[in-house]
Specification:
alpha+beta; Phosphorylase Kinase, domain 1; Transferase(Phosphotransferase), domain 1; Pdz3 Domain; 4 domains; 13-stranded antiparallel β-sheet; 6-stranded antiparallel β-sheet; 15 helices; 25 strands; 23% strand
Length: 669
């Protein structure tokens, strides 16, 4: 069957297929604007961007180039055979980003937000000014004194141990994934866990496996092998070996083969070859570099114990093969005292700790995960080079370690949440002695919000001593649309279009009388050709234009069945704001009778909060927040976190009753 002439004419415009998004591209309805392309790996593309507050962030796009392509801004599978693999990768990307957003640590790059756009997923992460460790190692003008190496090792052990305590493996530790910022602080970036999980999911995805010769332990080369904290520690040990010796260690597979053949291990032990390091420091690295996993140091705590001269090694860590998150234990990182200047530095030589160029480097995280809250990292521009002080050196054995400083992130409505213990059991609504008054929805909507009652001194004291909420109370916040019809994507020759296959019973009669028919073909949305995706709604969201009444005004190029010409039509579809809270409650904001309405769609899985599915949120009494906008829940979380309130007092409409209920936020650990 030949293609209709009109279809051929419709696709006469040539599509330019390129990998990276052009500068100026808007993401998430304009919340992020691409400033420049940074780099491209097997799992994704990284950009520097500006957020809505004109701050620099890094955007990591899920773009596995071997499985997908781009048409305009839309990302899709290269072929139908790759569609399932591509969607699986996007799902893993989103899930891991959610996990990583919980890793709030001074030496781990922060994940602000994960969201879906252009039929793929994106991560917004911290922008870190600095240089990666590999670049510095290879720079002849930079020399690392032993004190600086010890400090970097300790801080990385604190970060890696924190990752493992949360039930996650990094799986891609290497010098190029450790940034050193302008203050000399090492920052761990670019997790490879999602790529590892993707490679486990299908043979077709094994190309995404994360393996780096010289840094990856031998188990990373073997599909289905047991991996655990000891695997990450080998990679960290290999990175520190490169830092100490100036050369990366031999490939772990080459080492294993040599040992199996009865030949000497190509790895050259550090102990006894380099001076100026504390007793046991180089010996610990040699131990963690053992090719046999059970013979290595098993946990970051055990490694730190060896550095501190502890006689008894700590218990072995359990295997971690999935990215599941468990409640985080407090970070036990020991801050180092002031650095000592090496003898060479005192003589005026080049061994001046670390010379860090003030270069804009973007921290990249390779991950999988949906939308959260802090903000991200990238590769480099080049202003003037400037030397800064080295990281602090290692503590002496006889000196007790200083208490770790608590790092508090600035309050943000989309800051990452820590995994914490369940909050205290709240009072139930049924426990109230006074019966709830009967109120109609219209009366509740029109009621003026009462000013919050002033706190008594006792109340104020209690609030001040209560457990503060964690910084990250928003797990995701994204826009969605409800179309009045279902469609499927079809391709005829080189032409893609969406074809209407069913119409909802609540569709506007004016639409069904004009162009909305079974079989109507839709060729473009807001001037952009149809993406190779089963979700037309996501394409509408990529160029979202909000009309009055909270609807998205969309222009479509359509062809009605039986018609000989194309029509340009407009479609207004209801916009929906979906919000997921860290306490597992989910909310949905949409227009109802000309006003925004926020409804509970999912309840607290632990049963610690009194909200029920279907409750309409009216206001929060402590902060005075009224639920009269689409982002009211996000504004409320920002206000509660900013004031240190971990227990929201909500007025809700449940059926015809207006009730006061409590909602427990996730507390800070």
């Amino acid at each position: 069957m030949s293609k209709p002439q009109e279809v051929v004419a419709e696709t006469a415009v040539q599509e330019d297929f390129v990998d990276e998004l052009p500068v100026g591209t808007k993401l998430l309805k304009g919340q992020y604007t691409i400033s420049r392309y940074l780099n491209h790996g097997g799992f994704g593309i990284t950009y520097q961007a500006k957020d809505s507050l004109d701050r620099d962030v890094v955007i990591k796009e899920c773009f596995p180039g071997s499985f997908c392509r781009r048409s305009a801004t839309i990302v899709g599978a290269r072929s139908r055979a790759h569609q399932a693999e591509f969607r699986s990768i996007v799902k893993l990307f989103v899930q891991e980003a959610r996990n990583l957003s919980k890793l709030v640590h001074p030496n781990i790059v922060g994940v602000h937000q994960v969201f879906e756009d252009n039929d793929t997923a994106y991560m917004a992460i911290d922008y870190v000014k600095g240089r990666d460790l590999l670049d510095m190692i290879e720079d002849p003008e930079v020399t690392f004194a032993p004190d600086a190496v010890v400090s970097i090792t300790r801080k990385m052990l604190g970060a890696v141990g924190f990752v493992h305590e949360n039930g996650i493996l990094h799986r891609d530790i290497s010098p190029d994934n450790i940034l050193v910022d302008a203050a000399g602080e090492p920052i761990l970036i670019d997790f490879g866990a999602a790529r590892e999980e993707a490679s486990r999911a299908s043979r077709a995805l094994t190309a995404l496996r994360v393996v780096k010769d010289g840094y990856s332990p031998q188990e990373f080369y073997i599909a289905g092998s047991e991996q655990g904290p000891w695997s990450d520690l080998y990679a960290l040990g290999a990175s520190i070996t490169h830092l100490v010796s100036g050369q990366p260690p031999a490939n772990s597979q080459v080492r294993l083969a040599a040992i199996a053949e009865g030949k000497p291990d190509p790895y050259e032990a550090l102990a006894g070859r380099f001076e100026g390091y504390p007793p046991g420091f180089l010996e610990a690295i040699d131990k963690v570099m053992n090719t046999i996993p059970k013979n290595r140091i098993q946990s970051a705590k055990e490694w730190l114990a060896m550095l501190d001269g502890s006689a008894a090694p700590l218990a072995e860590a359990r295997p971690v093969s999935k990215g599941g998150v468990e409640p985080a234990a407090p970070n036990k990182e020991v801050p180092a005292p002031k650095a000592k200047v090496s003898a060479e530095a005192k003589k005026g030589g080049k061994g001046l700790m670390i010379g860090v160029a003030a270069v804009a480097v973007v921290a990249v995280i390779g991950v999988a995960v949906t939308m959260t809250g802090r903000e991200p990292a990238a590769a480099a521009t080049a202003p003037t080079a400037k030397s800064v002080a080295a990281p602090a050196g290692a503590p002496k054995k006889e000196e007790p370690a200083a208490a770790p400083k608590k790092v508090a992130a600035a309050p943000s409505p989309v800051a990452p949440a820590k995994a914490v213990a369940a909050p205290a059991e709240p009072k139930t609504a049924a426990a109230s002695s006074a019966p709830a008054p009967t109120v109609t929805k219209e009366a509740a909507a029109s009621a003026q919000p009462a000013a919050p009652a002033p706190e008594t001194p006792a109340e104020s004291s209690t609030a001040a001593s209560a457990v503060a909420p964690a910084q990250g109370q928003i797990s995701y916040a994204l826009w969605d649309v409800k179309l009045p019809f279902d469609s499927n994507i079809r391709t005829v020759g080189s032409t893609r279009f969406a074809q209407v296959r069913s119409i909802g019973t609540d569709a506007d009669p004016a639409l069904t009388e004009s162009w909305l028919k079974i079989g109507t073909m839709i060729f473009s949305v807001n001037g952009k050709t149809i993406a190779d995706s089963a979700d037309l709604g996501s394409q509408i969201l990529t160029d979202m234009k909000t009309a009055k009444g909270g609807a998205l005004q969309t222009k479509l190029r359509v062809k009605i069945p039986g018609a000989s010409a194309y029509d340009n039509v407009e479609l207004a579809v209801p916009a929906i704001r979906r919000i997921g809270l860290a306490n597992t409650i989910s909310l949905e904001s949409r227009m109802a009778d000309g006003a925004w309405e926020t409804v509970t769609t999912g309840v607290d899985a632990s049963g610690k909060s009194e909200l029920r599915a279907g409750d309409i949120l009216l206001r929060e009494t402590t902060t005075g927040t009224v639920f009269d906008t689409a982002d009211a829940a996000e504004r409320l979380m920002d206000a509660l976190v900013g004031r240190g309130i971990a227990d929201a007092r909500l007025e809700v409409l449940r059926g015809e009753q207006r009730l006061s209920v409590r909602m427990a936020l996730v507390p800070a650990s």
